[in-house]
Design goal:
This protein is of the alpha/beta class. 34% of the residues lie in helices and 23% in strands. The protein has helices at 41-51, 66-77, 120-124, 127-131, 144-157, 186-193, 203-211, 251-264, 269-283, 296-305, and strands at 4-8, 12-18, 33-39, 55-63, 85-88, 94-100, 106-111, 135-138, 160-164, 181-184, 217-221, 227-230, 235-238. The strands form two sheets. Strands 5-4-1-8-9-10-11-12-13 form a nine-stranded mixed β-sheet, with helices on both faces. Strand 4, helix 2 (66-77) and strand 5 (85-88) form a beta-alpha-beta unit. Helix 1 crosses helix 8, helix 6 (186-193) packs across helix 7 and helix 8 packs antiparallel against helix 9. The two termini are 29 Å apart.
Length: 307
């Protein structure tokens, strides 16, 4: 029987503008292309894990608007269990405005909406679901108190957790001792460690500093420089796959979702990071968050072609 992945996090509707380059302050760019797509870090991770072959249940909060209804329907298309996607009455669904430049870089702003209505009472209502899950995947587009509550509860239950500390913002760092796997990019690593510039040269030092907070496994993603892993099983760099980037939106989310699936299938940490790196590489070749999350078949073909 497939191991169970529980993703707790945000759901958004993404409004995306694609342009040749990102605008300067006060500048207006025309001749852009527009796309409306489903997003939100939690939802992106849930979709990525499901498409990679995982058995996924998603816990989130959406608004009582048309976006909320369509988001739930979209998750169900990917065979995600949506029984615990709550609806916040009188509240709009979360939304994001995203500008994407020609090289794939982006500007992103988020209005949390219903995402900030996912509260501790909702988490208390899923005790049995948490206990029956093999791993809980988390990010930081929900309330601080809710994230801290989930981590504390999971720690007491002895459940494995994967936290993508994104976006980086204040947290009671004692909660991090309940994190089994921490995935952070250069900016997030800098936020948690105080190291001013994180690079491949000092990634091992930064990872050790993070591990000293009580976290079992650290994964620092370094863009085109790959990933650095520090764990009891393996320590070292895993190279990134080289592709032509179109849109970097959700690359980290796809990385984390597919990582959870690989780990639940029994892949080693090293193999799992290679798998998630391949999924993220495929993600950046397409526009949009969830539209760019690859299927398991696409990931396997890509790895075979680039091995």
């Amino acid at each position: 029987m497939a191991k169970k992945i529980l993703v707790i996090g945000s759901s958004n509707i993404d409004l995306i503008m694609k342009m040749d380059r990102l605008p300067d302050k006060g500048e207006t760019l025309t001749d852009c292309s527009f796309l409306q797509a489903f997003g939100g870090k939690g939802a992106n991770q849930a979709v990525a894990a499901a498409r990679a072959g995982g058995s996924v249940t998603f816990v989130s909060s959406v608004g009582d608007d048309d976006f909320g209804t369509s988001m739930i329907r979209n998750y169900q298309k990917d065979k995600i269990n949506t029984e615990y996607v709550f609806t916040a009455d009188g509240t709009p669904s979360g939304s994001a405005l995203i500008m994407v430049g020609g090289d794939g870089d982006n500007y992103i702003t988020v209005a949390p909406g219903a995402n900030y209505h996912l509260r501790n009472n909702h988490i208390d209502s899923i005790n049995e679901l948490m206990q029956s899950s093999d791993i809980i995947v988390l990010q930081y587009e929900i309330l601080t108190e809710t994230l801290e509550y989930v981590l504390t509860k999971a720690g007491k239950m002895g459940i494995s957790t994967l936290l993508n500390f994104a976006p980086a913002k204040n947290i009671d760092q004692s909660c991090l001792a309940n994190v089994s796997i921490l995935v952070v990019n250069e900016t997030e690593t800098q936020y948690l460690t105080g190291i001013p510039v994180v690079s491949p040269d000092n990634a091992p030092e930064a990872a050790k500093k993070l591990q000293n907070k009580g976290i079992e496994t650290i994964i620092i993603t370094l863009g085109i420089n790959g990933s650095y892993i520090l764990s009891g099983e393996y320590s070292g760099f895993i190279p990134a796959y080289k592709v032509n980037a179109v849109d970097a939106t959700a690359a980290g989310d796809v990385y984390c979702g597919s990582l959870a699936t690989a780990l639940m299938e029994g892949m080693s940490m090293r193999e799992s990071v290679r798998f998630s790196s391949a999924a993220a590489a495929l993600c950046v070749t397409k526009l949009g968050a969830q539209p760019s999350a690859p299927t398991r078949q696409e990931i396997d073909i890509f790895i075979n072609q680039n091995s």
